[in-house]
Amino acid sequence: MENQKEMNVSEQIARQWLKERGVKVEDIAELVLYLQKKYFPDMTLEDCIESVNAVLSKREVQNAILTGIQLDILAEKGMLDEPLQSTIAVDESLYGIDEIMALSIVNVYGSIGFTNYGYIDKQKPGILAKLNDHSDGTCNTFLDDIVGAIAAAAASRHAHRAAHVQP
Ligand SMILES: [Ca+2]
């Protein structure tokens, strides 16, 4: 019971932080639709929202969201020690830990997630383009990968489920 309660708080805060960082569930659902619409033309935004919500209910996903956003915020405020402060604040391309952390989300629904994640990370549609625009001084070094990974995992979840209902 205590454990259950703790999990709920974690999901609640993870959702709240995503929202505060400018990412709505609908924004992530749009990425899922972008990934899946050519395979499932009948898929609706509502289906995608349902899948994103299922991904957000996973504890390992919440942990990645909380850790990543926390580091982004601390870097934005200049509160990390060097060399990490500069590395994260300028989103140094050789750092790579942001992508590694995102893989813990991608893994949740198996290996299709990797393909989806790689694809969406290259294309950067919708909210991902916004998160990669550093012109307003915000640091989204971890958040862009986390959002792409949630979308990739939600797309994999949908593909797995569709494979089970279709003959
Ligand atoms: Ca990144």
From TrEMBL:
<protein>
    <recommendedName>
        <fullName>YutG/PgpA domain-containing protein</fullName>
    </recommendedName>
</protein>
<dbReference type="Pfam" id="PF04608">
    <property type="entry name" value="PgpA"/>
</dbReference>
<dbReference type="GO" id="GO:0008962">
    <property type="term" value="F:phosphatidylglycerophosphatase activity"/>
</dbReference>
<dbReference type="InterPro" id="IPR007686">
    <property type="entry name" value="YutG/PgpA"/>
</dbReference>
<dbReference type="InterPro" id="IPR036681">
    <property type="entry name" value="PgpA-like_sf"/>
</dbReference>
<feature type="domain" description="YutG/PgpA">
    <location>
        <begin position="27"/>
        <end position="158"/>
    </location>
</feature>
<dbReference type="GO" id="GO:0006629">
    <property type="term" value="P:lipid metabolic process"/>
</dbReference>
<dbReference type="InterPro" id="IPR026038">
    <property type="entry name" value="Put_PGPase"/>
</dbReference>
